[in-house]
Amino acid sequence: MGFSRWLVPLVALATVAMTSPARAAGEEPGDPKAVARAKLVEGGELLRQGEYTGALSRFQEAYDLVHSPKIQYNFGLAYMGLGRKADAIEAFETFLNEALDASPDLRANAERHRSTLATQTGALVVTCDTDGAEVSVDGRARGVTPLQTSIRLDPGPHQLVVEKQGSPPYAEKLTIEGGKRVTVEAKLVVVAAAPVTPPLAPPVLATPEPQGPPPPTAAELAAHRRSVLRTVAWTTGAAGVAALGFGVAERLIANGKFNDFNSRPQGCDADDRVLAHGGGDCSSLLSAGRSSATLSAVGFISGAVLAGASAVLFYTSRAPADASTTVGLACGPDVGRYGVLCQAPF
Fold this sequence. Notes:
The protein is an alpha+beta fold. The chain is about 50% helix and about 15% strand.
């Protein structure tokens, strides 16, 4: 592959550039630089074999022994092999900014890789209204605000978090595209202390306005109704007795007139076809008797009706308030007799 053809020579250049040949000859086997050089050689061989993870591990071990910015070039090559383009471009930029004494060919290659990777990665610019806030992307710390440079990210989804103690964190999900720049303005709202609320004064109870007497209860209404019914029953009963007395009196008068009519010596006749009913005072006695008999019937009928009504009222006044018993009274003249016949079914 094309990557393998130029990769090993470039790694070798970065490795040789660490120390001069004169100093390398005087290095002892246990010297950190000698060990670092051996690690870089091992890493270059692993790169040639496509073992990019192992190569990156060897380069990291060398860098831990000797913090040479020239090893950043080797980091960039390993990251490219792993597909970590954003990490690769950061490594090449560190190499170009710090390894100023590197060979021109090595720097030229690093610039070419950086230009190519810039079109394949995205740039995230983070601004914040609060200084000193920690910025992290996908759980990896990226510095504190204000950030001096943009953050290089591989294309795809990412999680941005900006946080500072005393404020709720700002979090946002982003989608990065290759060759494009995304700007995010993070706003952290300082949580102010809750204001102290003074205790509420006890509520003032309003004095209830005087009200009239309470409405009567159902029992009181029923008692009043029974009292009225009893009063009306007594009055109706008294009127019924008076009407019956009137009927009795008129009946006695009618009987007296009829007795006088029947005892006349000339012989009175009740037949209306007989002239003057036999003469004398026969006509006046018969008329007076009949009139008294009619009034007697009216008295008996009225008395019976009033007496029946009084009985019904008395019964109703004694019944419970929710009684459903039906009381009826029916009266009529006693046919064939000068009286009245009443029936009251319960």
